Amino acid sequence: MSPTANPLRDRQDRRLKRISGPGTLIFFGVTGDLARKKLLPAVYDLANRGLLPASFGVIGFGRRDWSHEEFVAQARVWVEERARTAFNEDVWNQLAGGFRFVSGGFEDDDAFERLGEVLQELDDTRGTGGNRTFYLSIPPKAFEAVCGKLNEHGLAKQSWQDPETGLQPYRRVVIEKPFGHNLDSARELNEVVETVFRPDDVFRIDHYLGKETVQNLLALRFANRLFEPLWNAGHVDHVQITMAEDIGIGGRAGYYDGVGAARDVIQNHLLQLLALTAMEEPISFNAAQLHSEKEKVLSAVKVPTDLGSASARGQYAGGWQGGEQVNGYLEEEGFDPHSTTETFAAIRLEIATRRWDGVPFYLRAGKRLGRRVTEIAVVFKKAPNLLFHDNTGADFGQNAVVIRVQPDEGATLRIASKVPGTQMEVRDVTMDFSYGTSFTESSPEAYERLILDVLLGEPPLFPRHAEVEQSWRILDPFEEFWAELTQQPEPYAPGSWGPDSAHELLAKDGRTWRRP
Amino acid sequence: MIVDLPDTLTAKVAKTLVMLRKQGDVGGTARVLTLVVVTRPGREERAITAAQEAAREHPCRVIAVVTGDPDAPTRMDAQVRVGGDAGASEVITLRVQGELAQPNESLISAIMLPDDPVVTWWPDGVPEDVSTTPLGRISQRRITDASAEEQPSEALERLARGWRPGDSDLSWTRLTLWRTQIASITEQFGVHTLRDITVQGSVGSPSTALLAAWLQLALPNVPVFMAEAAGDSPLVGVRFSRRGGDVELSRPRGDLAELYLPGQSVQRVSMPVRSLAACLTEELRRLDDDVVFGRVLTRGLAQYDRSSVAPSPR
Q1: Element (H, E) at B177
Q2: Among A59, A346, A448, B71, which residue has the least CB neighbours within 10 Å?
Q3: CA proximity to A365, closest of A269, A261, A275
Q4: Rounded to an integer, what distance in angstroms lies between the CA atom of residue A139 and that of residue A189?
């Protein structure tokens, strides 16, 4: 379905959005947190914005013993609670007419048989055209079972061709992180998925990449004259990428223990952000070009030889945070009190390219930190400061471009400016470039964009398997090093910015973490 | 906060803006454009409300020029709304009459945002030669509304005669959802099976005419007809007569469109009638020239057969 084939789609006609063609979206794990809070509301929002076709079906697959009607009633509650756009009865009724529920376990042959029947029924009654997207919102250990069953029951097979248009209905699969827990397991997982689906039909969701600001990073870098000439080792001192959460583990005990902050966040989100920050300019925004630049820069990432001095890890302790008493990690309910899983991790990486020679990239991620924030800070070298002698000791002139990914998406530029009224005092001030906070309110939620991209079959925002492999290549040595340590991760106070070793990591290089 | 400035000058308005900014009543948010709204007494509130809503997505300074009686004594009254009273925008209303009733650049130049593009919007119709009017000349984008005129077809012709890149009309914007759905539907069945297309709606409506013109221009070998049909909105539906069964997309009422495909039960799809604010928001999203609109207006309108046929019942 190439865009030029339709004479009604003129390349210059930029008002026309692409809306998804007919199809069915099948959610495995539909009663999970993500499906309830994000996925189904996003589907409704897409429908409400007129971006879903009339011929559209949604199938929930789960263990609950629900009828179609019970599923619709439950989904309505979720949508009304979480949808971004206003609830419209007509739109809902139209969308919900294509909702079905299939009850069963992931290894239940009968259930997959029923799934096949329901898919056929939707094709017949709703005109969904045999197009199927399987969304696996389930633990990775269940991937093999589900993919296997889909294969056995012929649900993932490319079947027939439309005699008139020559189009083949698609079969796509969406998987969520974690993509394995190390390089080997990532490869195994990939094999499981790719024996059933074609590589181009596998969409790995990293919802960060659907965020407006992450895409704005590309605009900031490549649509401006100002930044790119300075975006290199000649002017950049170092880069800090932070993803902090103010909450603890709460109910995710089972998932988190044994995984830790590095695998949970650094391997996927932070290394993707690093790639977008550091990559060369792609020759176009098409998926292949973007992926090859990201892959290139990830493969140039050097793993430090002295892992101990290039990393830090910690576990949050109990105490007071922002006015409430919170549990330490080891005291959280249902936890191994001797767990060595880290809730904070920081690593220092370098990129062996001419552009980034000698520029450290510091990545940190953690829970129970000072506040919830994700940002990329590109910190420039200090100005030589030949004129402003009177300011001795004052800290100024180190420019920084900070891209705030969440919350309050936007960017700031830190520049030195004269203090009013004084002779020639200078201090740093922050210039905030948000495109108006109101803008982000109406900008589509990341999941909406990603789901639509999957339905349209447009992969630029989704990491490819090669990128996943590169990320594990970078992280595995750290994980192996940490696994051999006998002592517990260093405790840190809740609401702080991590353990002392994290601060030492930068202090060793004569730098400090920004306070986000 | 609302500041009234009776019988005033633009310089005083500019001073008031600086003062409000110092007091902290004007936010430090970046603004991306100046939106000039040219309207008449009694009609300004509806336009300003739409502009404020559009400013939620595109933070802007709104300058509403309300042109009164040219024969009255020359006078300007201004009002500045900022902060909570203006939403994400700041709104400056200039009520002008007498010699000032023909607004030009000098009236507003002191209060336009530096560097940012200027968009001028005439919510009440289509002025003659819009791109050469004093405000049209300084605008990157000129937005008119043919359907607000009493003789919309004539307004459309007027627009076509003087069309310059940067001119745009809300009767075209109102078609975007229709065009999006139509493009998507034709992708499903391919255009080579088409015999002819009938656009159903009010024959005098500019949106209906533009839709037919767009289809005819893109599909030169498929005859496009128009059929008079009644409904809530001027455009009611489009019927594609084709080998293998007809396809029809129609929205006789409400926000749901009905899609009839051969051999299938009717499908419904969300296609809300869009508010003025939603259309304006779309207009402000891109400030480059809409060349497709230009082609449809200047070439497409002349090409399709404008004589109305009887609507075929479904």
Answers
A1: helix B176-189
A2: B71
A3: A261
A4: 12
Task: Name the residue among B111, B134, B240, B223 with its Cα closest to residue B184.
Answer: B240
The A residues from 3 to 22 touching B (CB cutoff 8 Å) are 5-10, 12-19, 21-22
Instruction: Give strand pairing partners of A174.
Output: A135, A203
CB of A410 less than 8 A from some CB of B: no
- Torsion, Cα B292 B294 B299 B302, to 10 degrees, reads 110
Among residues A477, A463, A86, which one has the least CA distance to residue A273? A463
Strand partners, A490: A314
SS3 A61: strand
Cα–Cα distance for residue pair A461/A209, rounded to 1 Å: 6
Q: What DSSP line would sit under A273-319, residue for residue?
A: HHHHHHSPPPSSSSHHHHHHHHHHHHHTEEPPS-TGGGEEEEEE--E
A234-to-A229, A356, A357 alpha-carbon distances in Å = 9, 9, 9
Q: Phi/psi of residue A36, each to 5°?
A: -70, -45
ipTM, 2 decimals?
A: 0.77
pLDDT tens column, A368-382: 998 889 999 999 998
Cβ atoms A24, A170 nearer than 8 A: no
Concatenate the DSSP letters of all residues of A87-134 into one string: P-HHHHHHHHTTEEEEE--TT-HHHHHHHHHHHHHHHHHH--TT-EEE
Smallest Cα distance from B302 to chain A, Å: 18
Mutate to test the interface with B, among A14, A15, A48, A167 (most CBs of B within 10 A): A15
Q: Domain-by-domain residue ranges, chain B?
A: 2-169, 176-309
CA distance B16 to A318: 53
Structure tokens given for A243? 């993803």
User: Which among B187, B269, B272 is the nearest to A54, CB-wise?
Assistant: B269
pLDDT per position as a tens digit, B97-123 = 999 988 888 899 889 988 889 999 999
Question: If DSSP codes are grouped into helix, strand and coil, which group holds residue B39?
Answer: strand
Q: Around Cβ B194, how many Cβ atoms within 10 Å?
A: 20
- Report d(CA B89, CA A435) in Å as an integer: 12
Query: Rounded to an integer, what distance in angstroms lies between the CA atom of residue A450 and that of residue A435?
Result: 22
HEC string of A463-489? Answer: CCHHHHHHHHHHHHHHHHHHHHCCCCC
DSSP letters for B72-139: SPPEEEEEEE-GGGTTTSEEEEEEEEGGGGS--HHHHGGGSPSSS-EEEE-TT---TTGGGSHHHHT-
Return contacts of A154-158, CB within 8 angstroms, 24+ apart: A154/A116, A155/A112, A155/A115, A155/A116, A155/A119, A156/A132, A156/A196, A156/A197
**A132 backbone dihedrals φ, ψ, rounded to 5°:** -135, 135
If DSSP states are collapsed to H, E and C, what string results for A401-465?
EEEEEECCCEEEEEEEEECCCCCCCEEEEEEECCCCHHHHHHCCCHHHHHHHHHHHCCCCCCCCH
Q: Which two tokens stand for residue B290?
A: 């809409």
pLDDT tens for each residue of B195-230: 999 999 887 889 999 999 999 999 999 999 988 887
The position carrying tokens 């909105």 is: B233
CA-nearest of A224, A220, A136 to A173 is: A136
Torsion of CA B262, B263, B267, B273, to 10 degrees: 20
The answer to whether the CB atoms of A433 and B191 lie below 8 A apart is no
Q: Cα–Cα distances in Å, from B69 out to B39, B75, B102, B108, B123?
A: 12, 10, 10, 19, 18
Q: Which domains does chain A have, with CATH numbers?
A: 3-176 (3.40.50.720), 210-507 (3.30.360.10)
Rounded Cα gap, residues A498 and A42, in angstroms: 34
> Is the minimum CB–CB distance between A440 and chain B shorter than 8 Å?
no
Residue positions of A annotated with a catalytic role: 269
pLDDT digits (tens, 9 = 90+) for A284-300: 888 888 899 999 999 99
Q: Do A12 and B291 touch (CB under 8 A)?
A: yes
